[in-house]
Amino acid sequence: MRKTAQTSTSAAGAVGFLVVMELGSGILQGWLNPLFSSIGEHYGASAASLNWISAAYLLATVLVVPLLSKLGDIHGHKRILMISTAIVAGASVLVAFAPNYELFLVGRAIQAPLAVFLPLEFAIVHQRDSERSGRSIGRLVAALTLGATIGGFLSGFVLDATGNLSITLLMPAIFMALCIPGIAFFVKETPLRGKGRVDYLGAALLGGGLVALLGGVSNLATWPPLATVAATIIGVALLVAWVISARRSEHPLVDLNMLLHGGIGLPIVVAFLFGAQMFGAQAPISVYLRSDPSTLGFGFGAAASVAGPVLSIMAVAAFLGASVGDRVSRALGGPRSVALGGALSAVAYVLMILAPGTILTFTAWLVLAGLGSGLVIGTLPTLVVQRAPADSVGIASGLYNTARTAAGGVAGALFALLMGAFTTPTAAGARAATQFSFHAVWWICAGLCVLFAVAVLFIRTVAPATRAAMAPATGTTAASGALEPIN
Question: CA dihedral defined by 25, 28, 31, 32, rounded to 10 degrees?
Answer without folding.
Answer: -130
